[in-house]
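Write out this protein's structure.
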Amino acid sequence: MRDLPVGNGSLLVNFDDKYQIRDIYFPHVGQENHTEGFPCRFGVWADGQFAWVADAGWDRVLEYLPETLVTAVTLKNETLGVELVCNDTVASHDNTFLRRVRVTNLRGSRANFRVFLHHDLRIYENAFGDTAYYDPETQGLIHYKKHRYFLINTEPHFDTFATGRKAFKGQEGTWRDAEDGNLQGGVITEGSVDSTLGVHFSLDEGESFEFFYWIAVGTKHEEVAKLNSLVTQRTPQVYLDYTANYWRVWVNKNDKDLSALPLAVAEFYKRSLLIVHTQIDKGGAILAANDYDVTERATDHYSYLWTRDGAFVANALDLAGYSHLTRKFFDYCGKIVHKDGYFLQKYNPDGTLASGWHAAWDIHRKEKLVPIQEDETALILWALWEHYGRYRDIEFAHRMYRKVTVPCANFLYSFRDPKTGLPKPSWNLWEDRHGVHTFTCATVVAGLKAAANFAVLFAEYELAERYSAAAEEVVGAMRKHLYSEELGRFLRSLQTSGDGGLKPDPTVDASLFAVFYLGCLPVDDEMIVKTMESIRTHLTVEGGIARFQQDGYMRVSEKFVGNPWFICTLWMADYFIASAKSEEDLKPAMEIMEWVVEQALPSGVLAEQLDPETGAHVSVSPLTWSHSTFIATTCKYLTKLAEVTAP
């Protein structure tokens, strides 16, 4: 889990719950994790006693300064008699990580202190062929390999340093050398290397000492040397202040009136905007999550763009007024769209195709499959039209029309079963089953309607009629084939079987919210009302909503139908908002929003799921989609509140 991300779109640094740096991503958010999730340690020696901040005995408070991407961390160790107050950030416009550390002596008498900062880099995501050395030109420690350089320095200048081997022939690393308070490593080491530096000082009882620490990141020595000079010339404090102010301005730039919200909800809305920003690459890719711990159980990670997640995140940012970010995302989509008019499962931040598990060949029927989750294509069109409807940027819409809108709409139009009128089978949004899914059908309807609107905009009326008619046909087919009169609700899907047939899947699934959310049926339609009531009845878990019945993914106990997911819980709030006719009707939605705020980590981070027994966060954190859904729900709440309270 990652409690504190700080980043600027090129450099992302993540802390765990023990306040250890665990991930350093560069030059893309989510791509090239130069620590591979191994901790960079931070420790204190005080008159012969030593502890790393990850050890037992520390009281830790891990938060952010309000409305910023600057951390506010307090660490206290009664045994050592020391308190550390730290602020961390990545400079808003330079690839430099900065930390301010204030050390206070709580020992009751004068004492000698030594603070040690350790660097376990695995550049290009492997531990071979790195070099760490002391650079007299910059008076810093440098780690490098090929086109990746990391320059580490402090002010006042560090007193001791060591480079050495790690994870090799029993050598654990220079961090072990620090534990007696004395570093004795070499000035240069190659291979599997690490480094540690030490800052020494003495303090009277109650006295404090402050120093700054930074890591400049670049592609060559000249680049990191220049960044190092900028920090020393401008001073680290100026960099910290500038970055804090930048984020305060950024998160308030749209002057959205949040006064109708409880203070905690309003603050969390802003925190979610900032956290979402840390998960977006400068090139437009919106990453699902950048928590490397998942690799230990999955041999893969979440540092990819799924265009479905990206579409929902982009829509939330549009609702909040951050169109500059969403246009970069849509431009990115224009570069990766398949020549046949669809998006594949997921992509790397640099636009290359990511790992996947959707087969292109049916081994039983000996025929070609389209290896997609069709909702990922449809939702891009929906989000594009929502973007245009809010910002009316005709030049941008025209640029995307031939590149994305028409090819994708033509695919949605043609990828249908002529017998049923439904889309052909594909993978579902949860990526765990193949078939014709109600959620996917709803997205196809929304995507075709969006394409029809764009076609009218550009006077291509035959296309508009074709897309509109297809959307209505899908809605009719959903009523006929995906709604169960017997159950009184929508089916999750018609699931494919080995012989190519389709079997009704009656599982209650939170994703059925899409039928009203994406405009297939009005929210007060009896089919919607019954379906949403079924979701609430069958999937409520300890105040939240699970994904679906008997969800086994990361499930902690068979006592529960599944773990509550933040996005699924907020979808129920969206239903209450959409159906509200009075301010009183909005209360259940606000109760859900306040519940989400209460479940967040102290830093404000939301994971993917919660453990229903302990309330602990489960899977990855932060999950971008969790935060973006809170943003979208808040915006919709404010809009509906204004409607129902208008004179």
